[in-house]
Amino acid sequence: MENIALIESFSEFKDDKLIDRVTLMSILEDVFRNALKKKYGEDDNFDIIVNPDKGDLEIWRNRVVVADGEVEDSNKEISLSAARKIEPDFEVGEDVSEEVKLKDLGRRAILALRQNLISKIHEHDNTNIYKQFKELEGEIYNAEVHHIRHRAIILLDDEGNEIVLPKDRQIPSDFFRKGENVRGVIESVELKGNKPTIIMSRTAPGFLEKLFEQEIPEVFDGLITIKKVVRVPGEKAKVAVDSYDDRIDPVGACVGMKGSRIHSIVRELGNENIDVINYTNNDQLFITRALSPAKITSIKLDEENKRAEVILRPEEVSKAIGRGGHNIRLAGQLTGFEIDVFREGVEEDVELSEFTDEIEDWVIKEFSKIGLDTAKSVLEQDLEDLVRRTDLEEETIRQVFQVLRDEFEE
């Protein structure tokens, strides 16, 4: 029985999978050696000759001629009378090479061999895909929506590779339909059970940085350097930029005339508000710029503990904190300082952390999330606005108001 289908499939694999000749030869030899080990126990006395271009395969078993009745290992030894059936002039001690036909392996072994070959080819493909995408980590990639699930979107690229965009890596306003193209950065690539898992992200700061590289020539050319990116995906981002060429205005170059250059980036990110800031080693100036659009009256720095006390006029406080506390939180992440906001002219104020005996800790944390850390900063807020911006009930906020007012009335 000649296994024509198996032989023909060698060149078929080579064409379909675009495997180079040397790699295919190595895979084929490995597969056949496994089959020989199963049948004969060992394979080190076999020579395998593979020609994947033509689909030719030869297997030769090498044995030593021993006297009749003295064969101890039938795989490595052959009796004199059996050897002389191959060539009549063989003598004891000589080496005999005999071709092993595929049919000698048996039908079941051949079927298993073919399945093993397919498995090895797929394993090779998966390794190559893993290596390919591992080199693309942190780079922007395009793929098409193939399947929409509750916790993730499954994408396919032009080569049919599967890429996963988890729900928590999507911008909150993202809405994709099947067949639609999606851009993101390759965040991570892992081999799980010999199959590569490729994760894409649209929320990573690196995605915004790579969009700057794509859309702004001076960034791509290295004339402008992005020092740091911080984001609340879909809401707000701050990007610190710098240039070693004094003739270039890095902020102006990134934003463009009337925001023309940054507009496509904002649109890609679901209208995320992007502040582009000139980087500086002067911490005081950097914090001032990071808290834009608020105008700072004065700053007191504690370099050792990386804390900054910022004094602002009352009407500037809400600008510094920003909607949902995003502005002050991102400014802190960008500069590496914990920023405390104080109102100009207010001599007496009390940290909310001082009220833990009367206000539960989780309630204080809710206020802190939106940048309110002191008693007066809470009292200056509108009740309905606080209900909207926090997860607190109206009654809870009224009780907090009363506790704080009592503090200042005493």
Structure overview:
Among the domains are: 4-131, 2-Layer Sandwich (N Utilization Substance Protein A, Chain:P, domain 4), CATH 3.30.1480; 136-201, Beta Barrel (OB fold (Dihydrolipoamide Acetyltransferase, E2P)), CATH 2.40.50.140; 204-279, GMP Synthetase, Chain A, domain 3 (2-Layer Sandwich), CATH 3.30.300.20. Strand 10 and strand 11 form a beta hairpin. The strands form four sheets. The chain has a five-stranded antiparallel sheet with strand order 7-6-5-8-9. Strands 1, 2, 3 and 4 form a four-stranded mixed sheet that branches. The chain is of the alpha+beta class and 410 residues long. It is 40% helix and 25% strand. The chain is elongated. Keywords: Cytoplasm, RNA-binding, Transcription, Transcription antitermination, Transcription regulation, Transcription termination. Participates in both transcription termination and antitermination. Belongs to the NusA family.
Kindly name the structural category.
alpha+beta
At CATH level 3, the topology of the domain at 4-131 is: N Utilization Substance Protein A, Chain:P, domain 4
Question: What does the largest sheet look like?
Answer: 5 strands, antiparallel
Q: Would you identify the regions where 5 or more consecutive residues have pLDDT less than 50?
A: 1-5
Beta-strand percentage range: 25-35%
Distance between the termini: 103 Å
Top CATH class of the domain at 4-131:
Alpha Beta
Shape: elongated
Major sheet: arrangement of strands: 7-6-5-8-9
Pfam families: KH_NusA_1st (PF13184), KH_NusA_2nd (PF26594), NusA_N (PF08529)
Function: Participates in both transcription termination and antitermination.
Subunit structure: Monomer. Binds directly to the core enzyme of the DNA-dependent RNA polymerase and to nascent RNA.
Protein name: Transcription termination/antitermination protein NusA
